[in-house]
Design brief:
- Four copies of one chain form a homotetramer.
- Chain A is an alpha/beta fold.
- Chain A has a single domain (8-246), classed as TIM Barrel (Alpha-Beta Barrel), CATH 3.20.20.370.
- Helices cover 40% and strands 16% of the residues of chain A.
- Chain A is built from eight helices and nine strands.
- Chain A has a seven-stranded parallel beta barrel, surrounded by four helices. Chain A has a two-stranded antiparallel sheet with strand order 7-8.
- In chain A, helix 1 links the parallel strand 1 (8-13) and strand 2 (34-38).
- The interface between C and D is medium-sized, with 26 and 26 residues.
Chain lengths: 248, 248, 248, 248
């Protein structure tokens, strides 16, 4: 049931846009296994996508599409109420753009991870999650579906399998979990772990397939991949330490 | 040298956007051989693209990408000065989005036809034409390049062959040509042909591989496909007559 | 309490965008008292705004800003979850753009009517309504606030007065009301009134300050203005008949 | 003829967009006299505009609109071919948005400075410059027109006066001039002055109303204001030194 071995590292990259730069992608790419690349609807533009794909190819990193609500001005962090058919088309457009550009340089897109508000809304709303999975399932190539590892992982696995797609559960290295397997809101103290606690959590996920929740309870968390952040040089330091822990 | 047989019909479709409807795609699709589909940068949105692709599939119509400068507000009719690397990335993004969405329903993208100001600028500027051809040549699948049939067709064919791509020359059914093989500007009288003259021009292109220019001169025009318009029901009537003429 | 006299007619105009045309503004403008003009965030662009303002000036029609969520692709019909400070800034930008362009041709903006999903969300959510009213109240010029006439009109009037702004209640000529003063959903039969019933409803609003609800109950409805639609020539015919009824 | 006294300092500010931050506006604002604020078409969004205006108000800095071609993805640095009526409407929309939001907090917009490619295109093209001046002249409030100080300053002054608007000539503190009064292209060595040469140039502009060109020639340059850059902390240091020089 638990999956203590082989945790991968994934990071959201390609989040610059036009003249605006975001993140330190060149520093992060050497440490990670999976790059979730913005598709132009919340961040990223055709040139940024192309450069990020080339960087992933250079470092042998697997690439995933990181599609979003259509909301550049809000960085995809604002919930939008879309009809299911509309959302499905919007996701397939983004996935196709990224997959084709990847294929142009010999890469094969391997997964889809929804971004920002869409990610959160989809974790909370089964209908929305179904729309996302349908969007992925209708794509011509097999694509895994990256979603949050929670206490409901078995339900989510069944849902994905019903759509014929493979789930990839991700845990968060630096965030504190509550007893339901949800992330503590950033508004609450202790929501973001210290460097030391983060490394403890990674080790426990890796060795025991569990986390210790805010109340001190042990919670089984089936995770395939760890989400790390590459926003700034300090964050990159943390990625290096996690990498060292996972692949000493 | 001339190519009197087998003229195809192509039309620009999928030019609606969100709540705004443009064209009568359902009426046009049954008559044409090739649908040049807007990719979302001057018109079209993910749902419109999906619907247009499905309509093409239903009628067995070949599909092409109709990419543009990034200019929704100007419908891609305003020239923009982009660096070549920028333009190439922008085109590849649009092509990939359309190609992938086509493949999702079992269609294979067959060609690329630049839109509007980009089309005109590219016909006038060899460096820009090279950037467009490089964008197409770098795509992972073979894609033909649809461009205007002019007196320079041999040069253009050589250019395309140097990039390893197949040119598709298009002539305009309803536009009067000048002696250089350019279209008479719409500002000039006689630029848009009457129904009768249009049918004469189509017949001459089909049977003789030539047009009669505004000065009365016979001009050889190597054309693979005829561009027709589907903006309104009247235009659709003309398409029906041309179809009848080409495939009686 | 009721307000049987002096009903005005308002219509949403300026909803074209770039090459896409929507509505028959030239036919509608002669019949109405108030033009609610799209500000470029769900429809309208600088040229369309300028032309619509000039048309209003020509016909002596009062102008209002018709701001929206930032959602061109969805025509402002998709709910978006924005922080209050964000929404307020977005509304003030749109209002300022329209007010200044009006002033450039000697017009004075007189009111603000939120559009589409924002309008519906605001009628259902008091916090959102407060944000809209704060946005209006902070503007340098006095601007009325157009909102839906419902059974809660007294509450809404108090809210507006607390912000120091004047409410303008609008009723819908062609829509059937339920007993709570809400519009019957378009999904239900009878939601959109026949021409004859529409004229009866207008007459009752005008003479008695009330509507007859779907259940046959008389409901007092305090309305300052009637919303009419100018999407197509048929709709314009209805406006003409309503105008005739109100100002015989 | 020369104008050795009273040089002002202006800086382009408010160039963040959504989640992307650009510039160090808080550090720059205390040193400058005029803030040219992006209007949302190449950078800036309603919240950024509101914050930048508030910051200008706090420091008693005059505010100008910094409108652009409609090109967020290109930061307004890509030339676009717009019809004059289209450009005029686009400029007036941006100016109105900024002017109204300024007025909401008690500020009065004082000038307009075109941005990026529009600025360069307008300096090179008299018809485009006329369109910009017409856009400004048609605004309901008097607005000065900030443009580059070149050897043609007398012609430009006459043009502006013909439109009834006041020109504000700006010189560049840190750029080397050629003998025609144009800036040396950044591609050429010596185009961007060292800190020491920059301060010499500022002093010469201030005291003698002239610059020393790349060839060593003295060129009279009538300047009202000096353009400085606030992109990074180092640039801010230079602004402080220039301020010290101008107002010791």
């Amino acid at each position: 049931m638990s999956k203590p071995m082989g945790l991968l590292l994934n990071c959201d990259l390609g989040e610059s846009f036009g003249a605006w730069t975001q993140g330190v992608d060149h520093q992060v790419m050497p440490y990670i296994d999976q790059a979730s690349i913005a598709c132009g609807f919340h961040a990223g533009d055709p040139q940024v996508i192309k450069q990020t794909l080339a960087l992933a190819a250079e470092h042998g990193v697997a690439v995933g599409a990181h599609p979003s609500y259509p909301d550049l001005a809000g960085f995809g962090r604002r919930s939008m109420k879309l009809a299911a058919t509309e959302l499905i088309a919007i996701l397939q457009y983004q996935i196709a753009a990224l997959a084709g550009m990847a294929q142009n340089i010999g890469l094969s897109l391997s997964y889809v991870k929804p971004h920002g508000a869409l990610y959160n809304d989809m974790m909370a709303n089964g209908q929305l999650r179904s729309a996302v999975m349908q969007a992925i399932a209708e794509c011509h190539q097999p694509l895994a579906f990256m979603l949050q590892a929670t206490a409901d992982w078995e339900t989510h696995r069944s849902e994905a399998e019903a759509f014929g797609i493979q789930p990839l559960f991700e845990a968060f290295a630096d965030r504190c979990y509550d007893d339901s397997g949800a992330l503590l809101s950033r508004a609450e103290s202790g929501a973001v772990l210290s460097r030391e606690k983060m490394l403890d959590q990674v080790q426990q996920l890796q060795e025991d397939g569990s986390v210790t929740t805010v109340s001190g309870k042990r919670l089984t968390l089936v995770a395939d991949t760890l989400c790390v952040h590459g926003d700034n040089p300090e964050a990159v330091g943390a990625i290096g330490e996690i990498r060292q822990l996972l692949s000493p």
